[in-house]
């Protein structure tokens, strides 16, 4: 048993247990099959090398929130690594719609859309060995983030693993291989924390292993410059709602000094929207009240509602 198992462990992806997820149907290359029958080859490029891209999305009222933004990132990532999606965004939407319908899902759903370079002819690295077309898998689960996280918050530990430079593995790739982030999560766990706060190669505070990171100081919202971190859709939307509603927001370099002394800190991601940070390296953040994050959370919720209702009228 490791440190975190002994204490009250939590992550930003904690969801209420939903027994319906035991019987979900999963999309695998055009087929929609029961969860236990959903399989990919051991020769698959995703399994062998982490050679693939994915998107996490949320379904609200039968519509995918910020679908266009997710598809922009997905298609850009695939193009950048010469991964032929084999369809256009209408084809992806059709696969998502079929999977949601097969599962009778319309709300409080999280989806992981995954595309790999497909089955390899031989068990080696070169992409030319992936000859039979991509593998597309869609997992949709009934998923509501646990309410208790909004009160308790996430405990972060700063870790030794840093974000990479874009010329090694650009952090903007939502790639199947997340080993950099997984190592960071392990280091945080060993430090007795829930998740990892990662620095950039210059020592500035950057992001966490699975979410983007924001602080609030004297009423202003700060986040990293956007270099070295995932170009999170939720991050962009938080910046947008701040700008549209007169909340000062800065994308800038800052250090742990400013993070420890913040009035509030929170994480962003499609799964949990905005999740408060309780502490960093054992230091409590602020006095536990989070008025700015609460306002942003409400504004973000309203933006999601407008986005899905606009799609209903398309
Ligand atoms: C490392 C990392 N940071 C941040 C995010 C959040 O991105 P988004 O807001 O688009 O869900 C993700 C999600 O995939 C991620 O993997």
Automatic annotation (TrEMBL):
Pfam families xrefs: Aminotran_4 (PF01063)
GO molecular function: branched-chain-amino-acid transaminase activity
EC number: 2.6.1.42
Reaction(s) this enzyme catalyzes, per UniProt: L-valine + 2-oxoglutarate = 3-methyl-2-oxobutanoate + L-glutamate; L-isoleucine + 2-oxoglutarate = (S)-3-methyl-2-oxopentanoate + L-glutamate; L-leucine + 2-oxoglutarate = 4-methyl-2-oxopentanoate + L-glutamate
GO process terms (BP): amino acid biosynthetic process; branched-chain amino acid biosynthetic process
Cofactor needs: pyridoxal 5'-phosphate
Pathway in which the depicted protein is active: Amino-acid biosynthesis; L-isoleucine biosynthesis; L-isoleucine from 2-oxobutanoate: step 4/4; Amino-acid biosynthesis; L-leucine biosynthesis; L-leucine from 3-methyl-2-oxobutanoate: step 4/4; Amino-acid biosynthesis; L-valine biosynthesis; L-valine from pyruvate: step 4/4
Record flagged with keyword Calcium: no
InterPro entries: Aminotrans_IV, Aminotransferase-like, BCAT-like_C, BCAT-like_N, Class-IV_PLP-Dep_Aminotrnsfr
Keywords for this protein: Amino-acid biosynthesis, Aminotransferase, Branched-chain amino acid biosynthesis, Pyridoxal phosphate, Transferase
UniProt key word Transferase: yes
Chain's role: Acts on leucine, isoleucine and valine.
Family assignment from sequence similarity: Belongs to the class-IV pyridoxal-phosphate-dependent aminotransferase family.
PANTHER family: AMINO-ACID AMINOTRANSFERASE (PTHR42743), AMINODEOXYCHORISMATE LYASE (PTHR42743:SF11)
Name assigned to this protein: Probable branched-chain-amino-acid aminotransferase
Species assigned in the record: Nitratireductor arenosus
